[in-house]
């Protein structure tokens, strides 16, 4: 079956702490079942909100816990993006693109390179075009490219938004999607835009990429007035949050299990990343690829004329997504290394290379 951007993001099942999460859910129900199984506040399970607020040094009222980070960003897009420009990196995360467009936003893009979003291009856009309502960025281990924004660009981006907001009444909201930040397995941790801004920007993350995708527990940290409005929208959208999943995450963290799990996850992701890069060097040496220090994805660019859609279909590789899902780039692919063992990851590249050789031979024969 051909992979797609929605199916190729999950964990290898062996990375999921299934037994401990089951015990955490049972403990949460035993401790707080009457609250968990009742209607809850739109902003999410209160103990988890308080814990996240403590992590980031903000008041709990600024924290909105949602059914996955994408839903939180969708609520934000509905509030801010309707009929207004929203800037995102290009290539763009397919899910976020759909979320923004479904919210009625006018999506514009800024190129991304191995050092992250091009602040120079963004600066030019801000001077020439209508001011955007939102600038959306994945600064660490970008989806789909795996790129990470350099520290200096982070500072420049925060300063550019700050300077523009000082000169206007309709401020730009800078949204940082840091869903993969805690998966870093190599290199030094970089400061979040949220911290560089003095905690004035919007920060988004999720436990889907760190504990288990099926838990669907994400969160936003928002300025006070915006947090209150989004909590109201959340209540109107789904009546009550899924408190059982949120309470399970809270119990998992309170037990001290998160750090041990993250250590295992990071080690496993690095092994899988290394297996993928080694296989690429051996079997597709004429390609160019990113070398992420965390996250799930490698961006592979093959020579011009390669049709990645054909390769993915021939290889039957669910962990690969054609570049056309994210950009007008038929010769690129997003490769995920999180969904299989190191041997399975390497075997996928062997199949991809074989599919390419077969396709190239077929095209040559037709000529």
Quick summary:
46% of the residues lie in helices and 14% in strands.
Written overview of the protein:
- With 367 residues, the chain is of the alpha/beta class.
- The protein folds into 2 domains: 241 residues, Type I PLP-dependent aspartate aminotransferase-like (Major domain) (Aspartate Aminotransferase, domain 2); 108 residues, Aspartate Aminotransferase, domain 1.
- α6 links the parallel β5 and β6.
List the keywords.
Aspartate Aminotransferase, domain 2, 14% strand, 46% helix, 2 domains, 367 residues, 4-stranded antiparallel β-sheet, 8-stranded mixed β-sheet, 12 strands, alpha/beta, Aspartate Aminotransferase, domain 1
Count every beta strand, where a strand is a DSSP E run of 2 or more residues.
12
Element order: H for helix, E for strand: HHEHEHEEHEHEHEEHHHEEHEEH
Sheet with most strands: 8 strands, mixed
Task: Kindly provide the name of the CATH class of the largest domain.
Answer: Alpha Beta
Blueprint of the fold:
Elements (H helix, E strand, L loop, with lengths): L17 H19 L9 H11 L6 E4 L2 H12 L4 E6 L3 H9 L3 E8 L2 E2 L1 H10 L5 E4 L13 H16 L6 E5 L15 H4 L5 E5 L11 E4 L2 H15 L4 H12 L2 H27 L4 E2 L7 E5 L6 H8 L4 E3 L9 E5 L5 H25 L1
Helix pairs in contact: 1-9, 3-4, 3-8, 10-12, 11-12
């Amino acid at each position: 079956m051909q992979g797609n951007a929605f199916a190729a993001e999950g964990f290898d099942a062996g990375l999921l702490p299934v037994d401990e999460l089951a015990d955490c859910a049972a403990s949460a129900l035993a401790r707080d079942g009457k609250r968990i199984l009742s209607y809850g506040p739109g902003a999410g399970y209160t103990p988890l909100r308080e814990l996240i607020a403590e992590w980031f040094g903000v008041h709990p009222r600024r924290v909105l816990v949602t059914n996955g980070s994408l839903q939180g960003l969708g609520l934000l897009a509905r509030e801010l993006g309707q009929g207004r420009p929203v800037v995102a990196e290009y290539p763009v995360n397919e899910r976020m693109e759909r979320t923004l467009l479904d919210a009625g936003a006018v999506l514009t893009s800024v190129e991304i390179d191995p050092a992250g979003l091009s602040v120079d291009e963004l600066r030019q856009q801000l001077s020439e075009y209508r001011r955007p309502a939102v600038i959306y960025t994945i600064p660490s281990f970008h989806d789909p490219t795996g790129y990470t924004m350099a520290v200096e660009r982070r500072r420049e981006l925060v300063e550019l938004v700050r300077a523009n907001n000082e000169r206007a009444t309709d401020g730009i909201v800078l949204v940082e999607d840091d869903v993969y930040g805690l998966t870093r397995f190599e290199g030094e941790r970089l400061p979040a835009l949220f911290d560089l801004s003095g905690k004035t920007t919007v920060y988004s993350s999720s436990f889907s990429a760190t504990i288990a995708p099926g838990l669907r527990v994400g969160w936003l940290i928002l300025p006070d007035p915006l947090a209150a409005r989004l909590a109201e929208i959340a209540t109107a959208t789904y009546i009550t949050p899924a408190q059982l999943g949120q309470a399970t995450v809270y119990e998992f963290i309170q037990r001290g299990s998160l750090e041990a799990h993250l250590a295992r996850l990071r080690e496993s992701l690095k092994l899988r990343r290394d297996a993928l890069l080694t296989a690429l060097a051996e079997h597709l040496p004429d390609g160019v690829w990113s070398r992420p220090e965390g996250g799930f994805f490698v961006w592979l660019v093959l020579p011009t004329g390669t049709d990645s859609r054909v390769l993915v279909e021939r290889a039957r590789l669910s962990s690969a997504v054609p570049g056309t899902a994210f950009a007008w780039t038929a010769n690129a692919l997003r490769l995920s290394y999180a969904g299989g063992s190191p041997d399975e990851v390497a075997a996928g590249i062997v199949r991809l290379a074989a599919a390419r050789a077969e396709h190239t031979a077929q095209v040559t024969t037709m000529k």
